[in-house]
Design a protein that fits this description.
Layout: H1 3-19, H2 22-61, H3 70-86, H4 93-103, H5 115-125, H6 133-150, H7 155-174, H8 177-188, H9 194-215, H10 234-262, H11 268-285, H12 294-301, H13 305-309, H14 321-344, H15 352-372, H16 379-394, H17 398-408, H18 415-432, H19 440-444, H20 453-460, E1 467-468, H21 480-488, E2 495-499, E3 505-510, H22 511-514, H23 529-532, E4 540-541, H24 547-557, E5 561-566, E6 569-575, H25 576-591
Parallel strand pairs: 4-5
Antiparallel strand pairs: 1-6, 2-3, 5-6
Helix pairs in contact: 2-5, 2-6, 2-7, 2-9, 3-5, 3-11, 4-6, 5-6, 6-7, 7-8, 7-9, 8-9, 8-17, 10-14, 10-15, 10-16, 10-18, 11-14, 12-15, 14-15, 15-16, 16-17, 16-18, 17-18, 20-25
Protein name: Chloride channel protein
Pfam families: CBS, Voltage_CLC
Transmembrane segments: 65-86, 113-138, 158-185, 192-214, 234-251, 272-290, 321-338, 350-370, 382-405, 412-433
Length: 592
């Protein structure tokens, strides 16, 4: 920033500190973040729709001959841009934000503000089977983090504003402000307090207003409930809840299985070629896998499954309802495969909308099968509830799923089946998989932020902040006299690490170990450190242990000090008193 501009900005910050309270300034920033997220969502949608409209003419002109290779072209464009222009690799949107919240106090790199706005529309616009919501959230969150950095906002408020950005992006895309707020609370583990709720409300409302301003009354799904919920349908919704739970487990496990397969490829270009060919084959047999799939969902809600399925190799047999059911089951199975293949091949996008597409197909299948056995249930209602059930299971966000569908349909007439199906799906999935596609890596390392305040505070604490290094090191070959004169007499600590010539920790000595004979001069030259030292009760491994495991080691060992090893060498000590003091301070700041 030029000196003159910097000076003006500094004067503005000083004026702000004098005239605008922190609380009101957060409200202002939350509105700004909401507007930014709304603009990001509108921009990413419009760029994608423009690419799709342009390619529709190419597809028609080529008589559908290019239809199945367009995703490969999109992946190739993303690969070339990433490799030669941006030189930054796209990341899973929500996962990267959760990592930033957990390990970087909400600091997000600048390139994440604009990279998703380019790579995601290219991926989805050319037919990649992923969604736009994740990239919109990622870009909005990066903008929010950098706005916070610009105005010197503290880490706790920065994390809240990132949640505001996520709420804003969802509110703008779905025009569902309540579900957007709940998503930020459920997925980002924000505290639901008045302090956090008002900024989330302001961001969500300002984002949806931005969407209305640029897109008018256009919605992803223009659907109104016609058939009311019937009490007699409850057993079928229970069955749907169980079905969406197993589909959610399949969706998650398939994602990680395919990702593992692609990790075997050493070169990214090989991943692109293999993934592109696989997507092309899937699109040939199941055309609705092309792109996000929102048109597929709309057609199902309109009761037009033939239009939803598009042109398939078995068009001559789609008058048979069981053929249609089999095709819809194929979409349910292969949407997860197509989505993960797009990611693994180098594409950029999100999983939220593919989850909805898969859930809509499953819900529609369940309704069709039920109706074939002589019952009469609403296929549109089951399509909607199926979407909610899969969101609840795959993302572990049941409240988001319930309120999203309720807002999409413009009412709460499906509230009972939504609650029933989502609760069953979430409970079964949560018991089988204690993580989601978003959270697996952080969950396995114990670094995931949760609604448990104690665990969250420990996760946010940095190990470096409690490591002390002002200990006098001694060598095992030292005599007692040398140790007393060169270490004990000159140190303010009562603990001494014993290290060898290569800085390996071979033991420790505490003053209590030598207190009884430290003044016996007859032992000064005959007793060695090697004879007195002992092993530490436990060791903290710098590269491996997080604060939760450190706290557990103190609890299990009953020690007051534990040594830290870094690269298998002595690095310092952590004391229980300093750890608890830092924990209490962090807890006060977090809950303030």
């Amino acid at each position: 920033m030029p000196t003159q501009k910097k000076s003006r900005f500094t004067r503005f910050l000083i004026w702000r500190y004098k005239h605008i309270s922190n609380k009101n300034f957060i409200f202002i920033l939350s509105i700004l973040v909401g507007l930014s997220s709304g603009l990001v969502a509108v921009t990413i949608k419009n760029i994608t729709f423009y690419i799709q409209a342009l390619l529709e003419n190419v597809i028609i002109f080529s008589k559908n001959q290019l239809y199945f290779i367009l995703p490969v072209v999109g992946l190739l464009l993303v690969y070339l841009l990433v490799k030669f222009v941006f030189k930054k690799q796209p990341e899973h949107a929500i996962s990267s934000i959760l990592y930033a919240l957990s390990k970087r106090t909400g600091i997000i790199a600048n390139h994440k503000m604009y990279l998703p706005l380019i790579t995601a529309p290219l991926t989805v616009g050319f037919g990649g089977s992923v969604g736009l919501l994740g990239p919109a959230v990622a870009s909005g969150s990066a903008i929010s983090a950098n706005i916070s950095k610009l105005f010197h906002i503290n880490s706790k408020t920065r994390m809240l504003l990132i949640g505001c950005a996520a709420a804003g992006a969802i509110s703008s895309i779905f025009k569902s402000p309540i579900a957007a707020i709940i998503f930020a609370i459920e997925v980002f583990s924000l505290d639901l307090t008045l302090t956090s709720l008002i900024p989330l409300l302001l961001a969500s409302v300002s984002a949806v207003v931005t969407s209305y301003f640029f897109l008018g009354n256009e919605n992803l799904f223009n659907f109104k409930l016609i058939e009311q919920f019937q009490l007699s349908d409850i057993p079928f919704y229970i069955a749907l809840g169980i079905g969406t739970a197993f589909a959610s487990i399949y969706f998650t496990k398939m994602h990680f299985a395919i990702t593992k397969v692609f990790e075997r490829f050493k070169r990214k270009l090989h991943k692109l070629i293999f993934g592109g060919l696989a997507i092309g084959v899937m699109l040939y047999f199941i055309p609705p896998l092309y792109g996000e799939g929102l048109g597929f969902v709309t057609s199902l809600l309109d009761g037009n499954h033939i239009e939803a399925l598009g042109k398939t190799p078995v068009d001559n047999y789609t008058e048979n309802i069981w053929v249609v059911i089999i095709l819809l089951i194929g979409i349910t199975i292969f949407k997860a495969i197509a989505m993960t293949t797009t990611f693994a091949a180098g594409g950029s996008g999100g999983i939220f909308i593919p989850t909805m597409v898969m859930g809509s197909a499953l819900g529609n299948v369940v309704a069709k099968v039920i109706n074939q056995f002589g019952f009469n249930v609403s296929e549109a209602n089951f399509t909607l509830v199926g979407m909610a059930g899969l969101i609840a299971g795959v993302i572990h966000a049941p409240l988001t799923a319930i309120f999203l569908i309720a807002e999409i349909t413009g009412g709460y007439d499906l509230f009972i089946p939504l609650m029933l199906t989502c609760a069953i799906s979430f409970l079964i999935t949560k018991n089988v998989l204690n993580y989601t596609i978003y959270t697996r890596e952080l969950s396995e390392t114990g670094e995931l932020l949760t609604h448990n305040k104690d665990e969250t505070v420990l996760t946010l604490m940095a190990l470096d902040s409690v490591i002390e290094q002002n200990f006098t090191k001694i060598q095992p070959e030292m005599t007692l006299g040398t140790m007393l004169h060169e270490a004990v007499a000159k140190s303010s600590r009562n603990l001494f690490p014993v290290v060898d010539e290569e800085e390996n920790l071979v033991g420790i000595i505490v003053l209590d170990d030598i207190r009884e004979f430290m003044f016996d001069t007859s032992l000064y030259d005959s007793l060695y450190v090697d004879d007195i030292m002992h092993n530490a009760p436990d060791y903290i491994i710098y590269e491996k242990d997080n604060m939760k495991s450190v706290m557990k080691k103190f609890q299990d060992s009953s020690a007051w000090n534990l040594p830290v090893l870094k690269d298998e060498k002595y690095y310092g000590f952590v004391s229980k008193s300093k750890l608890l003091t830092a924990y209490r301070r962090k807890l006060i700041n977090f809950t303030r």
